[in-house]
Amino acid sequence: TQLRYEPWILTHLEQSGLDSTSRNTLQSLGFVSGCIVPLISGERLLGLLTVSASRPMTLSSEDIQILQAAGNGITVAIERFSLLREAQRRALQLETAAQIARDTLSTLDLNTLLGRMVQLVAQRFNYYHVGIYLSNDENSHLVLREAAGAGRDDLLNNPPRYARGSRTPIGRVATVGEPLVLNRVLEDPFYQPNPYLPHTRS
What we know:
Elements: E1 8-10, H1 20-28, E2 33-41, E3 44-53, H2 61-106, H3 110-125, E4 129-135, E5 141-149, H4 152-157, E6 161-163, H5 169-176
Antiparallel strand pairs: 1-2, 2-3, 4-5, 5-6
Helix pairs in contact: 2-3
């Protein structure tokens, strides 16, 4: 079913027919009358434009058209900002990849190179934690080799290791060989909390 987003108009709070909870909430905000205009991009709701008055009022069709035009302008501005932000993020990703490539060519020491890589990724993208796991000599486990951000020293003093094929995100990726994104790690049955990274959420 296609949703239809139309402005919601309230001419008088006491005559609105709203339930008491909604009415009391609006009243506490000084919202006696007003209009709420949805900000729509395609079929997606981006937000709401709200205007309110502390006294009863009646909006004309021209008033509503002006508010809708304002809402459209705000929607366009949000879309442009989102596109710009995505372009900037993409440019940063490419710049980071280029920096890593340059470091790879100019650095012969693996430990130094890995340290630079994790620091670069953590700083550029403001990540809570970044780690690089490498296979052990037997190719049976993935072992933390370098890290940046939260818990770095504690983790490197006692590096976590995960068996290939184990019921963990790292073990799963090592088996499948494809990227894995966990937007809510606490809901993933394979996730194992690390005491040195208590604030990991994704």
